[in-house]
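Worked example 2:
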Amino acid sequence: MNKLAIDIITLGCSKNLVDSEMLMGLFEAHGYEVTHDANELHGGIAVVNTCGFIEDAKQESIDTILELAKAKEEGRLKKLYVMGCLSERYLADLEAEIPEVDGWYGKFNYRQLLQDLESTEKPSEIKCNDTLNIYRHITTPRHYAYLKIAEGCDRHCAYCAIPLITGRHQSRPIQELLDEVRWLVRQGIKEFQVIAQELTYYGVDIDGKQHIAELIEQMADIEGVEWIRLHYAYPAHFPWDLLRVMREKKNVCNYLDIALQHISDSILSRMQRHVTKQETYELIERMRREVPGIHIRTTLMVGFPGETEEDFRELLEFTKWARFERMGAFAYSEEDGTYSAKHYEDDVPQEIKQQRLDKLMRIQQNISAEIEAAKIGQVLRVIIDRQEGDWYVGRTEFCSPEVDPEVLIPQVEQLAIGEFYDVRITDAEEFDLYATTNI
């Protein structure tokens, strides 16, 4: 019997993308034809990997499911399955409201979908793509990939629904991760985005100790690993040895994504962040002292319940002082089941939230423009991601894919996608740099 083609549609974060890639690899090992985020329906099976983190993401997931349910009713799709964070959290409600879906799976049992489709498949008939039994179909450009080192979170910040969805922090064994890195290198991967809900907690659930520095140091020693970039650290109990690794290992990018959320002691306490204003200032100072040239990406929140004008002024002053190379910000939105939803009144009016957000981002935009302009004349190493019109588009070690500034290089000579080049920065805009290979 011919097997139906399957399209995996991924919504949400890069951690979801890794889950989709793992599922795609399993499907392919069973002989299915699999696509990712196809532009058109192929009439077979669609699997939606949902996000349930914030309201906008939930709505996007629901809209996508409803659109595909309509396609199924119209005969343009044979089967529809849903997995991921949204169905992990709201399974009963979704099953009742969208009966057109053939099967619902959560964040952790999505492999059951394959078993349900292939209940008679024998393990000996499965074609693995590697002797290490790694099933993964890379959907990113072939030179970089995401490496998810853990799932879940033990931090329980007052506003965050992630622990309600993912549960307790669970670290993957170091050897398993190193084996996957070696396998990815053999597939042509040179750049690794290391991700987790909270990567600095890595290993604590295993033996009570933070092992993130040990993991990154061993990754850096693997031949073929050109860049390692770290995402989603936590400021409390920061593992200082990680800074030594960043400083000593040339293939560990001088880049750290660490969400700080706020600076006011009052708000940090209400957020249950377990860090103080003074500790946060000292953290940033030490990072910049121990890793010269480090680019820090952070996320800040405005409008948290109880945020006063004075609290917000503190946040503005902190942003001006810290001069983050990369910063995102968002307005507080109440999430079902969180501590803040249960115990705090959402008392900052929406228009005030938006005004504060706009003011904060205006300050950051000026900072970002100044930081990027200071790179003019520097020679930097870039990796080429793609061609776009008359330009090659690349990134420096200070830029993560899809979220950070890119480097545009005119096509005056042929460059290879996925290769590294030294370029001289010739001009800068707020979100892009311009460069030449003529240095």
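Residues 120-131 have pLDDT under 50 and may be disordered. The radius of gyration is 23 Å.
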